[in-house]
TrEMBL record:
This is U6 small nuclear RNA (adenine-(43)-N(6))-methyltransferase. Keywords: Cytoplasm, Methyltransferase, Nucleus, RNA-binding, S-adenosyl-L-methionine, Transferase. SUPFAM superfamilies: S-adenosyl-L-methionine-dependent methyltransferases (SSF53335). S-adenosyl-L-methionine binds at R82, G115, E138, N189. One of its GO terms (biological process) is regulation of mRNA stability. It is an enzyme of class 2 (transferase). It is found in: Cytoplasm; Nucleus. Residues 387-435 are annotated as: Disordered. One of its GO terms (molecular function) is RNA binding. One of its GO terms (cellular component) is cytoplasm.
């Protein structure tokens, strides 16, 4: 089962995914659908409708004490996604001052499930978890029959009423018989698609998008509707304009993100005072939810928090130094991989000092050296052009010096091609000094933000004060060595530049290009004379 840390915080499966091994040992009907791969991992084939149905029924039994039967010809609900929706409705109820209650609660909360399906999943979960009362509507005969049986099977008739309604009936027609009854919310998982071709993915999935990870067993009334989910929800909006405050919150779950914006615009055009939305995430699957109310004295629930930018770093910029290049830099029988890493790191420190970029060494793996860099101005854009201008200006001054010493063409050419590697390191720089500030890992792990705290010893451009404004760039630079067994063409050293923060990632790309050019140019031996 695909799970994700972005699930609702109260979702029971967010931090504790189902244990297939335990479930198989306890429920023989489920055990026949699992298999163990060569690595010893217990797997379930989510493209097998019988396996998906067995998992859903097993989880409902184990975690909620519910016994349900679902035909293979109708939609099989996934429990984590439905729980996300239930918990979001709980959040909406809290905006009205109504706390989520447990079973047996004296708080009378009434909801509507539009198109409840064979499993009657939302009423069963809402009644079991919170003691909510439900009016569950259904237009399909098969779904209506199974929904009634599942309610009776779990003895929840006092909380759940399943009603058969005419086709295309949503809210207005279903509630006209009891005009005095007030409801707290409605829920709806509308049919996503307008045509059978769209349901098969002929129009809705691009060529590069991976196929669905699970099987779709929904019947026509469950997955198809005239105009798709967009027109379906628009009809609910029109019904809500007549019912107004008879329901506190109107909600629906969308399968397409592109449906969200036009529906919000529709609500704005209709003058609905309060509108909110959220996203339900579980693994590779995402659904979008929309809610609106005609009550103005409610607070809109906060959207789900976005993942921190540093929770998972993007792929770093990588500079690869092949074995042949490293040999030219360090000599064919030069130092070990560990020493090579130190040498390359010292070279990078020299270049960073020339660019007036602050850096500190941080603790790292044995065959790795890490630098945390901070730049308050972009000094590396057109850095090569700037160096050439400075060198030309210096040479011009030397040529015009009153010393009257003439330079030969060979001397002038040698001076013109001299690189800044001969520049001495900044005063007080100790290449062997390492400032240990705690373990900092590369790759997808988080980088600590307190690496540049005041009082830490900075190498290189430490004489430059740290400005109060936001830095142009902060990055973690890792120099790694790999023992390639002397195989020709294999990379033995890597330099990785990880984005931490700054004005934009282009600055890191530019700096990576400068460092790469300086590294490779330093490794090219001069051509032998004829």
């Amino acid at each position: 089962m695909a799970l994700d840390r972005a699930m609702h915080p109260r979702n029971r499966y967010r931090d504790k995914p189902p244990d297939f091994s335990f479930l198989a040992s306890k429920y023989p009907d489920f055990s026949q659908y699992i298999h163990v791969d060569l690595a010893g991992n217990v797997k379930l084939n989510f493209k097998d409708p019988e396996a998906v149905r067995a998992l859903t029924c097993t989880l409902l039994k184990e975690d909620f004490g519910l016994t349900v039967e679902i035909p293979l010809q109708r939609l099989i609900p996934t429990i984590p996604l439905r729980l996300n929706y239930i918990h979001w409705v709980e959040d909406l109820m809290e905006t009205m001052g109504i706390k989520a209650q447990g079973p047996g609660s004296h708080a009378f909360i009434r909801g509507i499930d539009i198109g409840t399906g064979t499993s009657c999943i939302y009423p069963l979960l809402g009644a079991t978890m919170n003691g909510w009362h439900f009016l569950a509507t259904e237009v399909d005969d098969v779904c209506y029959s199974h929904a009634c049986c599942n309610v009776e099977r779990n003895r929840l008739q006092d909380l759940i009423q399943v009603v058969k309604v005419p086709e295309k009936t949503l809210l207005l027609e279903a509630l006209k018989e009891n005009p005095s009854v007030m409801y707290d919310f409605c829920m709806c998982n509308p049919p996503f698609f307008a045509t059978a071709e769209e349901a098969k993915g002929a129009k809705s999935r691009s060529a590069h998008r991976p196929p669905p990870s699970s099987v779709n067993t929904g019947g026509n009334t469950e997955i198809l509707a005239e105009g798709g989910e967009l027109e379906f929800v628009r009809r609910i909006i029109q019904d809500s304009l007549h019912l107004m405050k008879r329901l506190r919150w109107y909600t629906c779950m969308l399968g397409k993100k592109c449906s969200l914006a036009p529906l919000k615009e529709e609500l704005r055009r209709c003058g609905v005072p309060r509108v909110t939305s959220t996203v339900f995430c579980q693994g590779r699957t995402s659904r979008w939810a929309l809610a609106w109310t005609f009550y103005t004295d409610v607070s809109i629930p906060s959207p789900p928090p976005k993942r921190r930018k540093m929770e998972k770093l993007k792929r770093p910029f990588t500079i690869s130094l092949p074995s042949t290049v490293v040999e030219q830099l360090l000599g064919q029988n030069g130092p070990s991989v560990k020493d090579s890493v130190q040498e390359v790191c010292r070279f990078l420190e020299k270049v960073l000092a020339e660019l007036k970029v602050q850096f500190i060494r941080v603790s790292s793996a044995p065959a790795e050296v890490s630098l945390f860099i901070t730049a308050h101005e972009n000094t590396w854009v057109h850095a090569r052009r700037k160096r050439r201008k400075e060198q030309q200006a210096s040479l011009t001054e030397m040529a015009c010096d009153g010393d009257s010493r003439s330079m030969s063409s060979m001397e002038f050419q040698a001076a013109s091609h001299s690189d800044s590697e001969h520049t001495q390191s900044p005063e007080g720089h100790n290449s062997a000094g390492v400032c240990s500030v705690g373990k900092v890992e590369s790759g997808d792990n988080e980088v600590e933000r307190d690496l540049d705290l005041p009082g830490m010893r900075m190498s290189g451009s430490s004489k430059h004060s740290v400005h109060g404004d936001k830095p142009v760039l902060k990055s973690l630079v890792n120099v790694k060595g790999v023992d390639d067994g002397d195989q020709e063409g294999n990379a033995s050293l890597f330099v990785e530049l990880h984005w931490v923060e700054g004005q934009n990632r282009d600055s890191l790309n530019q700096l990576a290009s400068v460092l790469r050019n300086r590294l490779l140019s330093s490794c090219v031996s001069p051509a032998a004379p004829n």
